[in-house]
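Sanity check

After download, print the first record. It should look like this:
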Amino acid sequence: DTTVLQIFGARVFRGDRTQFQPLLTGPVPGNYRIGPGDELALVITGDVEFAYSLPVTRDGFIVIPQVGQIFVNNLTMAEVERLLRTRLGQSYSGIRAGTTKFNVTLANLRTNQIYVVGEVMQPGAYQLSSVATVLNALYAAGGPTDRGNFRKVVVRRQGDSVATFDLYDYLLHGDTRNDILLNQGDVVFVPVHGTRAKITGAVIRPAIYELTAGQTLTDLVEAAGGFRADAALLRISVSRIVPPDQRAANGPDRIVVDVPINQVKDGKAPPFPVEAGDSVAVFSVPTSTRAVVELKGHVYHPGTYGWHDGLTISQLVKLAGRFQPAV
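Expected structure tokens:
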């Protein structure tokens, strides 16, 4: 097979990076935490009418006229609202009585400096919105290189690893539950890839895939989208690199292992162990069909017909719409 296979998922990050920046409008996630550089908008209505723009200072405070200085750093919007209800109630009796209402929203978002390093296309420091996530940072940096690890992207915060993100959750299932919000100074690190194997032949998506510890041929075929309809489902051929300490003088560098799959259940391959560098081939059924006969000449429907034991010429001519009249 001379087809040059792509590393699964690499092309997703190679497009125009500007279209993958986080949106700066609309509500922020419920777990978003206020920090220096954010700006809040406070509107008070009822017995009194006021509107304030409240930037968060470097020290994490906002200052409200007639109320004073309030520390809001690292609080969620729900926590800020509860805190303001208490503090505003001390200055405005209508808050306690219910005749005065207030509403607080996030007017402007701060910018965080995020570092994206390791096996990425454009490593460096990026100024990203404070609602940016791991995926936003990777898109900004062009994604992992061909050497990068797609199964274990690490987020480091103040020297500690706080999260890992498996890009296959996103690429195969659209699952972004582990795509965390990034904080000022976070480091997104992409290490060198782990076990990779190539799969070709009668699967939906032939490519080079990365496997985690304990994953098998079952997982590899599933990542490749499963078997095609024309898969022979008799055996899978695995071309495997012989470990250096097991190679004989002038011996082969690879061996071929035939994995029987004639007992496929639920369309899944058997749990055969996969090793780094394996090249897996799934065979398809032949395109030619033996049990056919071909009829040509002066019949209404010449062509190929299915053969069965006992088929006669007269039956075949009848299937073809009988003879055409002589000209």
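If your output differs, re-run the checksum step. Summary of this record's structure: The longest helix spans residues 77-91.
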